[in-house]
């Protein structure tokens, strides 16, 4: 009856080679607790019938006199609850509970998945008692208790494999009253609240110090959306350049004293464009507003939005009141959390299953650890180790188990990378929340507004299919209603005619046999007799003649001859009479034969007419039988023609009429709903969409900035690039789910901490608590990594991106030699064989200082600011020219040019454009994306990377290059060829002075010294002084 198989994750699936059949009472044919538009009962029946697998939980009722069992099934969004009743003396039956079908909320799904098992079957059928008796009780399996006992045995077998679990042990169930958190938890949450307040204060001060941007014209801009409004603000050229440089996220228009309404207009910056010297800023206003409410010209002020502050403070407030879905985070922050062992949702033995799917051992371990953790898992993902692949496997697992996942990160690109991967799997429904201007093109169709339009169209199409099906049902029932009387009449006549013909055939056959036998008998007899008679008469005549001749000779003989002659004459007369008599009999037979032959011919004609009538009726019945029962709508229990014909026309027609009336009513309801659906605003569908999707992608703050989404909880939160996110930001998505997986690398770029922010925080809470300062300055991922048990940590250790020689250096310099290269990376050759190595360092150490030094200028604060490095810019041009000359076949390749300083980035762009105009180098498309800072390149990869260190000066100063993690990011963007340009002696030397040296700077210089020796050993250093004449 049942076989054990394995699903996608190596978990066991039981096989039940039958449908699961519930018997229901029509008064319980209902659906309840649906969050939005509730499906009709018949829609549910249709969906359930098509199912092929489900999660099922079967448990014995406690404190029950009879052995009754509770049955719960999860299929999609449906929760079907039933009872196996044990009525003594009667077979076991599975009945739909009084609650009917309910919406399967994430919590209900999680519980049934936790305590149940996965079952493959042949559909879920809900039938009435009458229907069950008609369709199933004629089969032994269904008529006995075997059907229900098979399901119970499967459940017992599952419990034996998994271990007995008490379903009442519902870990994570919500309680009516929240426990109060400890003083220590409150203390640290309050400190984080101060981070938020301080950050807002610093942003506000910074915004107020920047002069406003003037606009001279405003107009609405058409955009495909139903919720937000887009406006174009025309700027002057100088303000356009300033705003382009600052790249603000939000601006505001002050209305105080301008309009009666004193509420300022908040504008989210969507796009900054220059079209034919018309400088425009496209902004989004997230509320309904008319053009007349916006001043036709005025100022745009840099804005520190209180919304962002309020979002974070609201989350912190819910944590303080212990009302968040996340119950462990405040305890972890305050170092008061009692860790429990990992669950055994997925056995670690299943890593073989995952490895067969293409994961390496460290990826498989990360997937299993993330699934089994009861609270959180940290995954250290160095560059190129396949973080997105691992995230996709988590999402696949969680969505398969009916869990909703939030994918989040500080930056939009990280979120988009994950969603772009997930959207390829058509079984996973994803939606993106955020600013369209900041979202990648390949996931814009997932934006909630666009998704709403698409799902609206999908639903509309599906509804139309339902309308068409109902129309077919109505037409089917109407046809039956029309033909039923004639069908029954034809059936009756057909039967009577067949009986008549059968009887006629028997009668005709008997007559034919009788006549044929009689004919043969008489014919044979009469012929023989007449022949004998003729012979006798002839002999007698001969004898008589002979005797007459001799009669005169003998008188005695005369006398005897007289008598003998008389006797012979009488005998002759007798035989002549017999001959006439037989002739008459033969004539009479011939007449009888003719009569019977005619009678037979008449009967055959009647038979022929009957057969023709039967053929006509057969053809008619065949046409009626062409009215096919819609098998795919079996669960609707429609009148089935012709098997359901009772013979009572009045009752049958009344039954059909009732069904037609019901479906006409359903038809009108669905048609009306479709019309309403086509006119509905997309945002009114958001709650429904979020209840349907498996994955929601949003930035850390973005998930809480829209009211429609702020109260939607998730089962799991996955945060990517978490090595860059501070606690006051990452706490927002973490608060939305009881379980979290943080993926990041604190050995790459850290969060950017403004000195003004640190000073403001210290002024509020002091600096005596080093742990609190760590929470401010470090990513929460790094804090957790340093304080969490090993059971919550996994490192992805195999990279697929960089040339092996680059990864070998990174492994030793940053990852304690635990960062390995996949074998495929060792096969990569240097680009066009320009050099023997994939890592080349252009060293300017021996170039005279007046040529190699960086350029700088003093700002208003009298601080030196690096503006560029002309020699290193020229070397970059030299490398570009060399690459283009070597690439004679114009093979496509991705180029990336990285510099730590924005000013130097601008200097490089300007120089490249000048060389292109002089035709010294070929055209380079999308230059703004190709040349960028280190921070802009995190998460990206290119075939060729050119990295300029910029810093070279007499002071031996390296500025913010001291954060050695930037070196990790810069080097690991490469896939084929890495060029590095810099003054390696200055970068690697530690200048002794009376001031205490920053430990971070020491670490950077040690890394650079290691790189210097590494390159020397591998013969990868090129002395720029030797090729200086070739560099123009």
TrEMBL record:
Residues covered by the DNA2/NAM7 helicase-like C-terminal domain: 776-984
Domain DNA2/NAM7 helicase helicase: 359-753
SUPFAM superfamilies: P-loop containing nucleoside triphosphate hydrolases (SSF52540)
Entry annotated with the keyword Coiled coil: yes
A single MF term (Gene Ontology): helicase activity
UniProtKB keywords: Coiled coil
Gene3D superfamilies named in the record: P-loop containing nucleotide triphosphate hydrolases (3.40.50.300)
Coiled coil: 494-528, 600-627
Domain of life, per lineage: Bacteria
CDD domains: DEXXQc_Upf1-like (cd17934), SF1_C_Upf1 (cd18808)
Name of the molecule in the record: AAA+ ATPase domain-containing protein
């Amino acid at each position: 009856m049942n076989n054990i198989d394995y699903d996608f994750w190596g978990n066991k699936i039981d096989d039940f080679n039958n449908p699961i059949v519930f018997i229901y009472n029509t008064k319980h044919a209902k659906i309840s607790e649906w969050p939005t538009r509730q499906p009709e009962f018949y829609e549910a029946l249709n969906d359930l019938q098509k199912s092929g697998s489900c999660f099922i939980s079967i448990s014995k009722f406690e404190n029950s006199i009879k052995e009754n069992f509770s049955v719960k099934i999860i299929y999609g969004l449906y929760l079907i609850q039933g009872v196996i009743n044990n009525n003594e003396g009667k077979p076991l039956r599975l009945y739909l509970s009084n609650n009917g079908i309910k919406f399967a909320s994430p919590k209900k799904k999680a519980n049934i998945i936790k305590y149940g098992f996965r079952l493959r079957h042949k559909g879920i059928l809900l039938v009435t008692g009458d229907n069950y008796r008609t369709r199933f009780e004629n089969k032994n399996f269904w008529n006995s208790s075997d059907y229900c006992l098979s399901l119970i045995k499967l459940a017992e077998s599952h419990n034996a494999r998994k271990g007995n679990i008490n379903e009442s042990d519902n870990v994570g169930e919500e309680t009516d009253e929240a426990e109060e958190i400890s003083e220590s938890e409150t203390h640290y949450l309050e400190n984080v609240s101060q981070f938020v307040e301080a950050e807002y204060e610093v942003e506000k001060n910074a915004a107020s110090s920047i002069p406003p941007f003037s606009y001279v014209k405003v107009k609405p801009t058409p955009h495909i959306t139903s919720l937000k409004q887009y406006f174009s603000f025309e700027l002057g050229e100088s303000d356009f350049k300033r705003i382009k440089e600052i790249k603000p996220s939000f601006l505001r228009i002050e209305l105080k004293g301008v309009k009666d309404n004193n509420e300022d207009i908040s504008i989210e910056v969507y796009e900054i464009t220059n079209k034919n010297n018309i400088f425009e800023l496209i902004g989004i206003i997230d509320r309904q507003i008319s053009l007349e409410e916006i001043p036709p010209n005025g100022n745009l002020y840099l804005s520190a939005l209180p919304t962002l502050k309020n979002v974070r403070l609201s989350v912190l407030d819910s944590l303080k009141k212990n009302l968040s879905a996340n119950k462990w985070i405040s305890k972890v922050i305050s170092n008061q959390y009692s860790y429990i062992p990992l669950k055994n949702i997925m056995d670690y033995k299943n890593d073989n299953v995952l490895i067969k799917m293409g994961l390496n051992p460290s990826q498989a371990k990360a997937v299993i650890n993330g699934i089994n953790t009861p609270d959180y898992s940290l995954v250290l993902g160095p560059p190129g180790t396949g973080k997105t692949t691992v995230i996709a496997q988590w999402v696949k697992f969680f969505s398969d188990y009916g869990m909703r996942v939030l994918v989040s990160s500080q930056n939009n690109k990280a979120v988009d990378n994950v969603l772009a991967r997930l959207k390829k799997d058509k079984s996973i429904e994803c939606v993106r929340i955020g600013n369209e201007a900041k979202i990648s093109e390949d996931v814009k169709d997932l934006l909630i507004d666009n998704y709403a339009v698409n799902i609206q169209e999908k639903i509309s199409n599906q509804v139309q299919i339902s309308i068409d099906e109902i129309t077919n049902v109505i037409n089917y029932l109407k046809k039956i209603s029309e033909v039923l009387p004639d069908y029954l009449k034809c059936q009756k006549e057909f039967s009577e005619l067949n009986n008549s013909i059968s009887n006629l055939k028997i009668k005709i056959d008997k007559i034919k046999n009788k006549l044929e036998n009689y004919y043969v008998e008489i014919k044979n007899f009469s012929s023989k007799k007449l022949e004998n008679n003729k012979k006798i008469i002839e002999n007698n005549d001969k004898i008589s003649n002979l005797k007459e001749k001799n009669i005169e000779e003998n008188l005695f003989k005369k006398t005897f001859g007289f008598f003998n002659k008389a006797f012979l004459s009488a005998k002759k007369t007798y035989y002549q009479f017999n001959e006439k008599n037989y002739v008459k009999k033969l004539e009479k037979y011939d007449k009888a034969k003719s009569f019977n032959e005619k009678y037979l011919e008449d009967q055959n004609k009647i038979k022929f007419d009957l057969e023709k009538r039967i053929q006509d009726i057969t053809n008619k019945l065949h046409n009626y039988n062409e009215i096919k029962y819609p098998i795919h709508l079996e669960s609707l229990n429609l009148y089935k023609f012709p098997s359901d014909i009772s013979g009572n026309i009045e009752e049958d027609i009344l039954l059909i009429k009732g069904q037609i009336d019901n479906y006409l009513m359903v038809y009108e309801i669905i048609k009306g709903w479709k019309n309403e659906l086509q006119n509905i605003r997309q945002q009114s569908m958001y709650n429904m969409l979020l209840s349907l999707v498996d994955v929601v992608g949003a930035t850390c703050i973005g998930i809480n900035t829209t009211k429609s989404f702020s109260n939607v909880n998730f089962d799991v939160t996955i945060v990517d690039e978490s090595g860059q996110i501070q606690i006051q930001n990452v706490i927002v998505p973490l608060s939305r789910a009881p379980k979290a997986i943080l993926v990041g690398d604190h050995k790459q770029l850290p969060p950017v901490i403004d000195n003004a922010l640190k000073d403001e925080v210290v002024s509020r809470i002091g600096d005596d608590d080093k742990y609190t300062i760590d929470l401010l300055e470090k990513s929460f991922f790094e804090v957790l990594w340093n304080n969490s048990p090993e059971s919550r940590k996994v490192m992805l250790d195999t990279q697929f991106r960089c040339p092996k020689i680059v990864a070998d250096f990174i492994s030793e310099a940053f990852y304690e030699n635990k960062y390995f290269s996949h074998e495929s990376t060792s096969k990569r050759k240097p680009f066009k064989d320009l050099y023997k190595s994939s890592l080349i360092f252009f060293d300017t150490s021996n170039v005279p200082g007046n040529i190699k030094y960086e350029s700088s200028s003093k700002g208003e604060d009298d601080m030196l600011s690096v503006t560029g490095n002309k020699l290193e810019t020229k070397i970059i041009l030299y490398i570009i020219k060399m690459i283009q000359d070597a690439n004679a076949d114009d093979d496509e390749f991705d180029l990336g040019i990285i510099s730590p300083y924005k000013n130097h980035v601008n200097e490089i762009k300007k120089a490249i454009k000048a060389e292109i105009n002089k035709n010294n180098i070929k055209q380079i498309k999308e230059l703004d994306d190709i040349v960028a800072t280190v921070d802009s390149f995190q998460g990206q990869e290119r075939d060729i990377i050119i990295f300029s260190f910029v810093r070279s000066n007499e002071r031996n100063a390296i500025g913010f290059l001291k954060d050695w993690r930037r070196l990790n990011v810069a080097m690991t963007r490469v896939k084929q060829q890495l060029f590095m340009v810099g003054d390696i002696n200055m970068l690697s030397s530690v200048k002794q002075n009376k001031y205490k040296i920053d430990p971070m700077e020491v670490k950077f210089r040690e890394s650079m010294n290691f790189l210097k020796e590494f390159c020397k050993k591998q013969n990868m250093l090129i002395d720029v002084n030797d090729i200086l004449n070739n560099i123009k």
